[in-house]
Design brief:
Blueprint (H helix, E strand, L loop, with lengths): L5 H23 L3 H33 L2 H18 L6 E7 L16 H12 L8 E6 L2 E6 L4 E6 L2 E8 L16 E7 L3 H23 L3 E6 L2 E6 L13 H15 L2 H7 L4 E7 L6 H12 L2 E4 L8 H9 L5 E5 L11 H6 L2 H7 L9 H9 L1 H4 L4 E7 L7 H4 L6 E4 L5 H12 L7 H8 L6 H8 L5 H21 L13 E3 L5
Parallel strand pairs: 7-10, 9-12, 9-13, 10-11, 11-12
Antiparallel strand pairs: 1-6, 2-3, 4-5, 5-6, 7-8, 13-14
Helix pairs in contact: 4-5, 9-12, 15-17, 16-18
This protein binds adenosine-5'-triphosphate.
Length: 506
């Protein structure tokens, strides 16, 4: 056989083989775009087929199924759809209007009204970075941010979103310039949170603003004239930082106050009046008045400094005490000097008739039992969150009725200047924590009775710490000498103050 005769056929075979190889190569190297196009074509084809079937099925159903059956199917389909689709959330909106005071003046100066309270509250919640436009108002150091009319912001309370919108007033209705201010604040929220908005969120705003205003206000000290109080601004600079006393004692007072403030619910539950009594005792110049001022500054409570020598009748005392608001401190200084030495027992032994006389206008004079009864009785129930402080230089002269447990909850001894108190004073006056003369002064302090007031006076003699400490060392040396010559031996048991908590606060 001629080998050439088989050539063409082998050429065809070769050509066919190479074509199939090319096709195979093309299939292997098909680019992703081409694959996507193929997939798209397949999908379109499938969709067209499905659509055709649906149209056919609907046509057949229309032809074959009776009208009632079709209506039932439609109803079932809509029911399923309603179940699957989330229901539109119902919203509620509270409109808070800015009402004018009588005489057309707007309620705008923070003087009251829910509108102002909400504005003040929102000023603390606004995120300046999240708002495109903001209003800045106020002057001096007090500036507040608020939303522009037409803007809105979201506040989250207890995990729930509350949306606030500022809506412009309708100034076009009136030519009156004041009308520009009749804007409203609108609070919107999901309907299911209506109770929360009204019963918790809005009261929370009101309480937050009231507290912020209280912390912001200037403190006042009231003094009694007759049966009324007269207040002046109270700028006593004493704070717990500046008070020179044993750090542990100081901390225990601060902790006690903090606990007291948090205990509204607790006092209600146990059926006790929400008040706390402190008896501060110790020699003159040890800082009792300074501690009272520090407590007032810490709590931001106004002080009511009661001068009992000004009060002649129990009825006047009752009027004064009833006139004290919540969150205030009643101070009676030198309580040992306020009453005659007549003991509570003797007072209790008085006949009914004499007691009646002592509580009427016919017999002037305030009795200790009258004061205590009123503080424990009516006064306790007519207000909340009140502190009573008695001070004395002579605790041993006090009537036992004042000292019995439950009356003055905490007894605080303000003692002579010890080492820690001295270091606080030097830090306050010279901003130094250590000095070459400290060891010498520490030694001297351990042997003399010197009050923080005396030490303060010496430190004030010079602005130069070296000179002032030299003056103090000399003063302490002289005191020590005088005491040695007088043969007095110092007991410094209470040098830095001792605390005696009569009723342990749970
Ligand atoms: N513990 C203290 N810490 C800081 N300063 C004090 C302290 N004690 C006294 N001082 C200084 O002495 C001055 C008088 O003190 P303060 O009136 O507080 O003492 P007091 O114990 O209330 O005296 P008195 O019993 O005479 O009323 C204060 O203004 C203060 O400058």
């Amino acid at each position: 056989m001629d080998p050439s005769a088989s050539k063409p056929s082998s050429g065809l075979v070769a050509a066919a083989t190479s074509a199939s190889m090319e096709a195979a190569a093309t299939a292997v190297t098909l680019p992703p775009l081409a694959k996507a196009v193929d997939a798209y074509k397949t999908a379109v084809g499938t969709a067209a087929t499905v659509t055709t079937y649906v149209v056919l099925a609907r046509g057949m159903a229309r032809e074959l199924l009776p009208h009632d059956l079709r209506a039932a199917a439609r109803w079932a389909a809509s029911l399923i759809r309603a179940r699957l689709e989330p229901a539109p959330v119902e919203r509620r909106t509270l409109v808070i209007k800015r009402f004018p005071y009588s005489g057309g003046q707007l309620d705008s100066g923070g003087g009251g009204g829910l509108y102002d309270e909400v504005r003040e509250y929102l000023a603390t919640r606004i995120d300046p970075h999240a708002m495109r436009r903001l209003c800045l108002r106020g002057g001096g150091t007090k500036k507040t941010l608020s939303m522009e009319d037409g803007d809105s912001m979201t506040d989250v309370f207890d995990g729930v979103k509350f949306k606030w919108a500022s809506v412009a007033g309708q100034s076009s209705k009136s030519k009156n310039a004041n009308a520009n201010g009749y804007g409203t604040l609108e609070l919107s929220f999901d309907a299911e949170h209506t109770d929360m908005a009204l019963e918790r969120y809005v009261p929370f705003i009101t309480a937050t603003v009231a507290e912020a205003r209280r912390m912001d206000r200037a403190l006042q000290i009231f003094m009694n004239e007759g049966s009324s109080w007269h207040g002046i601004n109270h700028h006593h600079p004493a704070t717990f930082d500046t008070l020179a006393m044993d750090p542990a004692l100081k901390q225990s007072i601060v902790d006690d106050l903090d606990r007291f403030l948090k205990r509204r619910g607790y006092y209600r539950r146990i059926g006790k009046a929400w008040k706390r009594g402190y008896l501060l005792y110790g020699p003159p110049g040890t800082g009792k008045s300074s501690l009272v001022a520090a407590m007032a500054n810490y709590l931001r409570f106004n002080l009511y400094d009661l001068d009992l020598s000004e009060v002649r009748y129990n009825i006047a005392l009752q009027r004064l005490l009833s006139g004290m608001p919540n969150k205030s401190i009643l101070v009676i200084e030198d309580i040992d000097c306020c009453f005659s030495t007549k003991s509570r027992k003797e007072e209790d032994d008085l006949s009914d008739q004499s007691r009646l006389r002592s509580s009427t206008h016919s017999q002037p004079g305030i009795t200790l039992s009258g004061l205590l009864n009123f503080i424990d009785g009516l006064w306790s129930t007519s207000g909340e969150e009140r502190i009573i402080i008695f001070t004395t230089n002579y605790k041993d002269r006090l009537d036992p009725a004042l000292l019995r447990p439950g009356r003055m909850d905490m007894h605080v001894y303000m003692g002579y200047c010890g080492w820690e108190a001295f270091k606080t004073l030097v830090r306050n006056y010279f901003l130094v924590d250590d000095h070459a003369r400290f060891p010498e002064i520490q030694q001297l302090l351990s042997g003399v009775e010197v009050t923080p007031a005396e030490v303060s006076e010496m430190l004030l003699r010079s602005e130069d710490v070296d000179v002032a400490l030299g003056v103090l060392a000399e003063f302490l040396g002289e005191k020590k000498q005088a005491m040695c010559e007088g043969g007095s031996v110092q007991s410094h048991q209470e040098a830095e103050g001792v605390i005696c908590d009569r009723t342990v606060m749970p």
